User: Fold this.
Amino acid sequence: MIRSITQQKSEEEILRLLEGLGRVFIIGCGTCVTLTHTGGEPEVEAMKERLSDKGKLITGGVVLPVACDNLTGDALSKYGQQIAQADVLFIMTCAFGVQTVARQLKKLVVPALDTLFIGKETALGQFDEICLQCGACILGETGGICPVTSCHKGLVNGPCGGTNNGKCEIDSAKDCAWTLIYNRLKDLGTLDAMRRFQQPRNHQGEPKPGKLVISAS
Ligand code: SF4
Ligand code: SF4
Assistant:
């Protein structure tokens, strides 16, 4: 399952963001941040204690089943009084959840987490980025292995020349993505794909904000 991978902000940053905000309502989420142990039930309870120790008054807290859901506003409505008493909603979800709450409630929001990437759990407790949503997918020519996210330099034409016994020159503990691609293409009998020149990635291709409109016809 694809996850939004997060890590908790430092205590120093959290206290700076909450400066002057004495009453806090905390929101966690039961999906991605529960899996990464950054915003599930135990983390929300621990945060309540940490902030209380720093002199904050916790007006309440909840772990929503899916914070980025369109029904988040409805789910929070039953905590209306506790939310009204708070100066701020301190949100222990990924940025999708924070923005969902901000769009649905007229209330100051502060994120407790940094959202790092969209990833997948590839081993117990290990999360790897799998797609940067670069807008020019070349998985069809790399044997299904994404070089943009798995090569340290994000090279779409590799390897870089620093490959050492199948390991990356930047991090010798990590497999070289382009060696993996080479071996995969060799296994598939499509090694010729390595000779194909990929156009350099266009970092300015998509104007912001990104938007896709699907016509009804
Ligand atoms: S090349 Fe990689 S980053 Fe780009 S769309 Fe495909 S999987 Fe995603
Ligand atoms: S050694 Fe391999 S993974 Fe590392 S930067 Fe070079 S091509 Fe990318």
